Amino acid sequence: MSGTVLCAHEKAIATVTLSNPGKLNAIDFAMWQHLARTFSDLSADDRVRCVVLRGDGGQAFAAGGDIGEFLTRRDTLDHALIYHGQAGAALQAVFDCRHPTIALIQGACIGGGLEIAAQCDLRICGESSRFGVPINRLGFSMYPAEMEGLLRLAGPATVREILLEGRILSSSEALAKGLVTRVVADAEVVDEAYASARRICAGAPLVASWHKQWVRRLQHDIPLSEQELRASFAFLETEDYREGLSAFLDKRQPNFSGR
Question: How large is the C-alpha radius of gyration of the chain?
Answer without folding.
Answer: 19
